[in-house]
Design a protein that fits this description.
Radius of gyration: 19 Å
Strand content: 5-15%
Strand order of the largest sheet: 10-7-11-2-12-13-3-14
Structural class: alpha/beta
Shape: globular
CATH architecture: 3-Layer(aba) Sandwich
Number of strands: 16
Length: about 400
């Protein structure tokens, strides 16, 4: 650990988180609260969701020599979900699915290099409230998990590493909490598609910026979508920690770039370094100790395998493309690892889950309705195979 703290990439984290740690919306579908066979989830009060990049299960969890902390240490501490699947390719459609239940369209499959409004903005197909058409920025009628939480008066934040390092790239505003709400203007190109040495933020590696229900109200967005600057401060107290925290590393630490623009190796090496620093910070936080849950997964895998109702052809659950995974029905098997005191160390689940499952499971924890494809009958919430320590 000491060696990691001496390395230059640690300074990239420390510079953006410099405060020491002391140790029923429109579009909602389905009732929340029930999981497998009527199982009720445990009383988890705080959730952290860490999303990484571009590794299938065989590369990440299947090769411990490449990332021993992720592949060996964390599963021994919690639960390994061996049959957890992404829903599409490339990146952005997965991030959007994870927070809204909206399925891929052609623009989001191609990562929205130019920010276009979703057109048309009014044709919603039941029963899973899928917006029919194509585009990048969803209208205000389509809610996210963040909107659900806010309506229920439950706190949430998205922490996006490097956002605002160069405000000219992502058009952030400066707030008391640091840079906030960084995204391209609708109708313009996204300048964060690639990294530069001083700023490796990628807007497409989180979903909230693609919804008018978040970005149309700048003050709302500024309160909820932030850089890493306030993260350690927020973790220092239960009161300061939101109930739901989304965490997106930069293009180097999420494993996307290999090598990184800074000269670091990238890939799984940087993923392991990031997790070794930040997972203990969360584990040692008062909020985690008070019934917390950490979810770590990947946006997409190396093939188009799918589960949980994703099929080829345009359907009610994905009306905008016949191939959510571009060459096939899904985003591949990526796996996930979950940490909580409600999970026995070393738990292994072989139940089929996907990104819609994690959305559904988080909604269940907070008593929220199921958005979009999270309401599909084939999509399961995490059950007793995961929460093995009642």
């Amino acid at each position: 650990m000491k060696d990691l703290l001496k390395r230059p990439r640690w300074r990239l984290i420390a510079a953006s988180a410099a405060i020491p740690l002391t140790l029923g919306l429109v579009g909602a579908a389905s009732a929340a609260g029930s999981t497998q066979g009527g199982f009720r989830p445990p009383p988890i009060k705080h959730v952290w969701y860490i999303d990484l990049e571009n590794e299938g299960f065989a590369q990440s969890f299947g090769d411990p020599s490449a990332d021993p902390y992720l592949a060996t240490t964390l599963p021994r501490m919690g639960a390994l979900l061996k049959n957890y699947f992404a829903i599409g390719h490339d990146s952005l459609d997965n991030y959007i699915a994870q927070i809204s239940g909206q399925a891929p369209d052609r623009a989001t499959q191609n990562d929205c290099g130019k920010w276009t409004r979703f057109e048309p903005a009014h044709h919603i197909r039941p029963p899973f409230h899928q917006l029919v058409g194509n585009g990048c920025v969803y209208p205000g009628s389509i809610p996210t998990l963040g909107n659900q939480l806010s309506q229920a008066k439950i706190g949430w934040k998205a922490y996006l590493q490097d956002m605002g390092n160069l405000p000219s790239r992502d058009h952030t505003t400066m707030t008391k909490q640091g840079p906030a709400c960084g995204h391209a203007a609708i109708g313009t190109s996204d300048d964060t598609e690639g990294a530069v040495p001083a700023d490796q933020y990628a807007t497409r590696h989180e979903g909230f910026m693609y919804f008018e229900s978040v970005i149309a109200d700048r003050s709302f967005c500024d309160r909820h979508v932030l850089s890493f600057q306030p993260l350690l401060h927020d973790l220092a107290s239960v009161h300061g920690t939101p109930a739901f925290s989304w965490i997106s590393p930069n293009l180097c630490f999420d494993g996307h770039d290999a090598p990184c623009v800074t000269g670091d190796p990238g890939g799984l090496t940087e993923i392991d370094a990031f997790l070794q620093i930040w997972i203990p910070q969360i584990l040692n936080s008062p909020a985690y100790k008070q019934n917390g849950l950490i979810i770590v997964t990947f946006d997409e895998g190396s093939n188009s395998a799918a589960c949980c109702g994703e099929t080829l052809g345009r359907t009610a659950s994905h009306p905008n493309t016949a191939n959510p995974g571009m060459p096939g029905p899904g985003g591949g098997r990526v796996g996930a690892v979950l940490l909580s005191r409600f999970i026995k160390p070393g738990t292994v689940s072989t139940v089929d889950y996907n990104h819609y499952s994690s959305l559904r499971s988080i909604e269940d924890l907070f008593g929220l309705a199921h958005l979009g494809d999270a309401a599909m009958p084939q999509v399961k919430s995490f059950g007793p195979d995961v929460y093995t320590n009642p």
